[in-house]
């Protein structure tokens, strides 16, 4: 394979690469060995610590936590998509009195850390006399943050469309509403699908912040099970098992994003995004990023965001 | 500890998390990013596993692991600030690595081929042609990564680290009977948790908008014309 960084390797480069490969393997093995040694030394492989997973009770608790995580995620995802569309349309409005305030709202919602927003809702609002349960705080904060990020993605998608799309819509007699609903948004959604899904992965990951404001989700039950003294406080085993559940969930969603991105790339409906010299290595999203200038090039579409 | 000292310590905590975590993320991210674009298949695979694994783990879980499991494995009495900083660095490093990888990949292969055709050596190809272009396309997204890092410092609030994310809760514990004359003092005293949290949110909005402005300036200055 050839890259901008190196040419096709010759005999000397191949030898050097092989040596570097062996060194990498040795370093990784050394790190793994140290981790396993520490795990063994502190008795993390004891049967007592792992025996907690032979009972059904702990699994039911983990499932309950998973259920709470998914309950927050699903509502937050749907809400964020809805808010994202509303804010995106607001930011694209022809009326300055809509566009400018909505623009400020989006900027501010994106700048507030999600955890601070959750705390604001959970600890702050009761001061003003509004009771808020942790579930509500988690969901609302996630909707506000991810909705505003999605709004930016959708706006970028619409603005990257060729002007002719909009003009053709007006030319056949459609109103503003119909042009947006039937012509611009469907194309923007299709082009921005990878960004949208990776933002949903962010929402899923951020449900774990609920742990900090006492929402009993998966991480809460991991800690609860990890503190069980009869099993020798199996914190490390439960963190490994519970953590794997998170990783599998996010990987599933990320895999979906990857599949959708590949499908979008092949779709004949997005051929306007293809460059004349057939750059099959770039995606629709990347090209939109380039068209908008490097600003949209924030790397989020390559996988889950931050 | 009185109120103003608490705020100073909180600010200090956030700054340490941001700068030390960022430095660790840069060092680790550059190493992993280099592995991801290296000609050694094993190194690419190791980099990919690290990046995909950590990026699909919630930051809260990474910090949970560092705060509660690492002391069990390594030894008790570890500084919670140091643990949280390491967790932030390990988590953010994956984003730094991906930014570097995608930045390098935006440089067309033809650039290096043309440079080699002119007879430049490997060092010259890198220092005169490839890296200057890669650097330009890496910097703006890298600022985005650091904006996210700044916001993520608040997650340490859940793991007994005093920073801007947790200062409101610490304030509500010491709560001196107030002699607050103006709004700012009320906000800072923690008497009214809502106002205090709004102040903290405002601080973050200002800091993030500042970084976003820096990003826009750098972007205008270094836009690659292709």
Write a structural description.
The complex is a heterodimer of chains A (about 300) and B (about 230). Chain A has about 300 residues and is mainly α. Chain A is about 70% helix and about 0% strand. In chain A, helix 5 packs antiparallel against helix 6. The longest helix of chain A has about 35 residues, at about 55-90. Chain A is flat. Mean pLDDT of chain A is about 85; it is low at about 275-285 and about 290-305. Chain B has helices at about 5-35, 40-55, 60-75, 80-105, 110-115, 120-150, 165-175, 185-190, 195-220. By secondary structure, chain B is mostly helical. Chain B has one domain: MetI-like fold, CATH 1.10.3720.10. Chain B is about 80% helix and about 0% strand. Chain B contains nine helices and no strands. Classes of the chains: A mainly alpha (about 300), B mainly alpha (about 230). The interface between A and B is large, with 69 and 77 residues.
Task: Describe how the helices and strands are arranged.
The complex is a heterodimer of chains A (306) and B (226).
Chain A: H1 11-41, H2 47-50, H3 56-91, H4 96-111, H5 114-124, H6 134-160, H7 163-171, H8 176-206, H9 218-226, H10 235-266, H11 284-291
Chain B: H1 3-36, H2 41-55, H3 59-74, H4 80-105, H5 109-117, H6 122-152, H7 167-174, H8 183-189, H9 193-222
